[in-house]
Amino acid sequence: IADLILMVVIYIKSSDRNLAKRFAVYTYAIAHWSFFVFACTITTSYNLSYLLCQICHIGGVFVPVAFLHFVQEYTNTRSLSLRIFMRFQYFVAFVLSFILIFKPRLFIANVVPKLTFNFFPEPGPVFIIWNVLMILCVVTAFVVLGNAAFQKKENDIKQEFINIPENVRREWRDFYAKRLKEIRLFEISRIL
């Protein structure tokens, strides 16, 4: 519920519509996944738990690629290879959604009691493949964030120097010019 409220507030208040859309998709995928994980684990019916687990992962498979897409929009990264990678990840997410609808046992083998939960999903073979792709997607997102932060830091340093007011620059110049003259006079006096 908190994710949905956050999604609506950010979408309404945002001036950057593309960024707000990416954030909305990302938070909706998280809200969908987290609500149905909760519902899947508290139900006492095996069949209902398995159905809720299927529904849960239909939204959950979009979380990593939605995160990457949000990061791409946030950092304003327009790399062709990143766009191709995101398209591939979206394609994989749609294929996984269809697998969850038509062949769910490939993704979720079973739901069984675990720890304090009535039912908890057991991963199928496709779930393991999805985990590898998810990790790759998230690592890519953090690399994009790291690159953007590094470039921003370099640009900020340059921009801060450019934005120094002229009077401050003049004072620094005069201060260092005076010190330089004092050093030269000191060196000349040492020589004499």
Description:
Strands 1-2 form a two-stranded antiparallel sheet. With 192 residues, it is mostly helical. The chain is built from seven helices and two strands, in the order H-H-H-H-H-E-E-H-H. Helix 1 runs antiparallel to helix 2 and helix 2 packs antiparallel against helix 3.
Give a nutshell description of this structure.
It contains seven helices and two strands, in the order αααααββαα. It has helices at about 1-15, 15-40, 45-60, 65-75, 80-100, 125-160, 165-190; strands at about 110-115, 115-125.
Produce the secondary structure layout.
Blueprint: H1 2-13, H2 17-42, H3 46-60, H4 63-75, H5 80-102, E1 108-114, E2 117-123, H6 125-162, H7 166-191
Antiparallel strand pairs: 1-2
State the secondary-structure class.
Answer: mainly alpha
Segments where pLDDT lies below 50 for 5+ residues? none
Backbone CA Rg: 27 Å
Describe the biggest sheet? 2 strands, antiparallel
Tell me the strand percentage band: 5-15%
Number of strands: 2
How many helical stretches?
7
- Give the overall form: elongated
| N- and C-termini, Cα separation | 82 Å
The succession of helices and strands, N to C, reads HHHHHEEHH
Task: Give the spatial strand order of the biggest sheet.
Answer: 1-2
Percent of residues in helical segments? over 70%
Mean pLDDT across every amino acid position = 81
